[in-house]
Each structure stands twice: as C-alpha cells, then as structure tokens.
Amino acid sequence: MTDHTARLDHVVLWVSDPVAAADFYEQAVGLEPLRVAEFKDGSVSFPSVRIDEGTILDLAPVSMAPRMTMLPGADRSAGRPVNHVCLALTEDGYDSLRARLEERDVPVSDHGRHSYGARGPAVRSFYFTDPDGNVFEARYYEEG
C-alpha cells in the first residue's frame, strides 16, 4: 500500500449559530467541543468540534463570509454546499449515534450497505443533517 502522508486536518462548515452547532455536535453526534468559551467571549472567530486526534470540524458563522479574502471569490463560499461529510465509527459508535439522533427527532436515512469509502466497503451507513442543513454520512467497517 502507498504511504499517504497527507491527512484530513479539518472541514469548515458554515453555520448560522456556532454555539448551537457545537451543542448539536456534542449532544447529538458525540463530538468534543473546542474553543466554545473563547468564541463566546470574542477571543476566537469560531469554535470547533473534534472528530479524532487529528481531525476537527470548524463551525464558522455565516457572518464571517465577507472577511474571506484569501482567494478571489472566497467570500462567496458561504452557502456553497459540500455534498456530505462522512464519519467512520465503530459498530457500537454507529448504533449510539443513530440512537442519539433519533432521541432528538433528527431525521435519519435508511441503512445503506456496502457503500465504498476510504477503507473499502462499509458494513452499514446512514445519512443525517445538522441544524444548518449540512449532510453527514455515518458508517462502520468490519473490525479487524
């Protein structure tokens, strides 16, 4: 197998309310919130949530879009949808996530089977959206 030294560091999601989004990702999805207090006190521009030791989701307020000047047109990126972000979990984590979402009346798709991803075909998967309409897939692979 090829040695892939590049890793996914973060994905930036445009959200209407970063604090509410961080709460959703903590309570419903089970991710660790980062820098929420600092965002609330104005010392950072946005909070984040941790997916794993090397990957986070940044929860950028849509109001920040006009300040995106790193590339021509970057300020118009707010509202440009990413198709979806996929979270790979253990089977127990997958079942727990689905249960938490259903407890909160978050609509979830039917279970898919054998959809292809970074580690080959997943055993099962499903989709859900966050309160801002960002689409997520959750999946698990064979252990071992």
TrEMBL record:
Every VOC domain range: 7-141
SUPFAM superfamilies: Glyoxalase/Bleomycin resistance protein/Dihydroxybiphenyl dioxygenase
Domain of life: Bacteria
A Pfam family: Glyoxalase
Protein's name in the database: VOC family protein
Lineage: Bacteria, Bacillati, Actinomycetota, Actinomycetes, Kitasatosporales
